[in-house]
Amino acid sequence: MRIDLHTHSTASDGTDSPADLVRKAAAAGLDVVALTDHDTTRGHAEALAALPAGLALVTGAELSCRLDGAGVHMLAYLFDPEEPALLAERELVRDDRVPRARGMVAKLNALGVPVTWEQVARIAGDGSVGRPHVATALVELGVVASVDDAFTPQWLADGGRAHVEKHETDPFEALRLIKGAGGVAVLAHPAAVKRGRTVPESVMAELAEAGLDGIEVDHMDHDPGTRARLRGLAKELGLLVTGSSDYHGSRKSCELGEFTTDPEVYGEITRRATGAFPVPGAGGA
Question: pTM (2 decimals)?
């Protein structure tokens, strides 16, 4: 089995619609794909309607968290999307995205960059607007060569000249909410140095003690040495090890299935979940 447990669609900051994403996942030879858009489940219905035969969909989301000023991302799998407490928190985070993006546009304007809110809104479309959409606007204007080049202290990185903070959940609270909704929680790319400050091992240990299920180890932003270190830490802490592409379509260079999760780990994730279950494809539209 080939299992990719971290992808994004146009429901957040990916460039493929949910329907196109699951079709591409099947074409890429995946047996299981998780749709984990940022702080939203709006793409799930479309993905399910288009799900090809032979492909199973794991419903999920990537929750935006912050601890001691550092961004932390929590992958939530197979939770009940209508559970009131987690739903309210996701909406609170999502609703803060527009004023945050407008604030980044204002900061960029003050730096002499002629980006407009209309441009960013066009790029975001129906998705949850975020930094990647602002970064794409900078690429369109020729300010930077790529989306990754926009995530630097000069521009949009945490603490960067045009960065604006948004409401983000404490990761321990996110963990409580995910568990309360019957979901499984995996810490996303915790040692991705190029994204800014990383998650300290002491915090990972505290999260493990609080009920964290796993760590995303095999990820494009972790070099081989980092992956080996995280794998050892996960074993020490009794955490599951996952791997995934963090696919965003053309917005990032990674491909579906670039990294995958062991089938035994996937089986354990499905056993632990009580809020929802993987949906097998029956041949979508």
Answer: 0.87
